[in-house]
Model the fold of this input.
Amino acid sequence: MMRALDWSDSPLGPPRQWSLALKTTVGMLLAAQAQIVLFWGPDYVALYNDAYAPGIGANHPRALGRPAIENWGELWDDLEPLLSGVRQTRKTFAAKDRPFYVERHGYGETSYWDVSYSAVIDDDGSVGGVLCIVSETTERILGEAQLRASEARYKELTATLEQRVAERTAERHLLATIVETTDGQIQALDLDYRWLAINASCADAYQRIYGKRPRIGDSLNEFLADRPEHLAAAKAIWGRALAGEAFTNIEEFGDPHFERRVYEMKFEALRAPDGARIGAFLTGMDVTDRLEEQARLAQAEEALRQAMKMEAMGQLTGGVAHDFNNLLTPIVGLLDMFQRKGIGGEREHRLIAGAAQAAERAKTLVQRLLAFARRQPLQAISVDIGRLVADMGELISSTTGPQIEVTVDTPEGLPEAMADPNQIEMAILNLSVNARDAMPEGGKLRISAKARTIESAQAYSLEPGTYVCISVADNGIGMSEETLAHAVEPFFSTKGIGQGTGLGLSMVHGLASQLGGALMIKSAVGAGTTVELWLPVSHAAAGAIDAVPEAKLRPLPAGTALLVDDEPLVRMSTAEMLSELGYRVVEAGSAEDALQRVRDGLRPNLLVTDHLMPGMNGTDLGLALRDQYPDLQILVVSGYANNEGITPDLSRLTKPFRSDELAASLANLAKTGR
Done:
């Protein structure tokens, strides 16, 4: 290697130019078996033999012929003083087991060496270099250190053996006690499916689901031999673990004659100290109750989300319907006035009649929206549901057509329910029409009513008590789960465009909720649909709605009417109607404005006020004026009836209304004296 080396880059130059002393020394060290390195010249150029080369690791062969600082850089601060000391003093430096920090294998380490550094005299008598004869003792030093540590450890173990045995025995006893008393199931099988270990909790679990307990040494094959399907399932999962797979699994086990339980199981391979696989073990936990609770919680959360969604939709729908009623009121009023006055010719009469008919349809649509939002004005009384349902049989038969076989079943002695009979009739008719549409090829429709008692507060989302349940059942096409989930949402419909508003079921749902009852729907594709309307039983005697006074009972002109409404268009149409009825009308845009007019000296005979207005509402306004003027007649007009805060003895009129409806309400006021 030295002959083949290009010495032109070395500070020493080519060997033919070397001094005799250098050539002689190199010839000597190359032939030696000892580990020798020569550091020559002021740059300490390294020249070494085959015996020395392994000691510098990856630095060989690049260190050959190069200054020592390039390849012994990590220990140069330690090595250089030794070499320069020998050059300067010509005294030999020797040491046994001297440590040197080196980086010869790509990482740093401490090595140990026996060293002898001596000066080499050049041809001119000066010190030409330092000859280093070394012997690495690292392996011996580290071995001796390990031996001393082992001896110390042995002495420690010998001195404390009895104590350690006692501690280990106590530790194993404690671990066994924990394993035996824990609620978790722990068991181990060998490669032949025989139990190597099983704790009490796990044996109890087998007793619970199979009626018997395995013992250590028992075979799983024999234990479940009388239940082949259970044995196959158990071996399938244990087989994976016995094959060395580690995994977690959740699965149901158990004989249905005893009990089925769900377990979460973590399987791992069981190995001997030498690493050989000897079986598998599992740690398990009965999670049946936890999963059932999670399912109940998920169901409750879904019900809450649905309730919140329906509540939000109800608030939005009710607000829109209320505003829409305010818009409809002047439209209905003006069209009614045009019809009463016979304005225009025949063509105009037809157009006005068509517009009035469209307005009535819009009014009906808004009523259904209010029903869904549970803000429709109800006249709840004690109703004989059995008689009401029976009386509707002929109407339903004529509505559904000859292809539908209608059966009405109402038992004798059915208790009365608290309800609005007109709204209940509309609800039953809506449900019957839905049933008819679900049976395009004909079918059977059964309408029945019966008394039901709710015992639990959670059943059917109803308070405990007695209810009258009206059932409308068909054997039509039924609904899918997805359709059923959206069935009571407003405007949701499976019918074609123009074939329904999607408000039938939502109206019935809102009606039931507003009356303190509930709507239940049971349906499946191909199995028909049953809709149940639950109504609370009335504790009052059955009654009937007072007949609406006919328009001919027109009130006599009674002086001044104070008209209060924050909507200018509504005030305009209502003022026109009151003027036609003979009243002198004074308008106010708010309750506060009305009170100020009274304070300024106005003495009205009649107060017609909107209920919901910014600031003080109409009900509070009416009560405030009645305290001052007990004879004042008061009529509250509202887009929907908000029962909270409304005094029952105040007469109410629902928007939109025609002149004859306003006249009838005022006539009723005159008749009752309120």
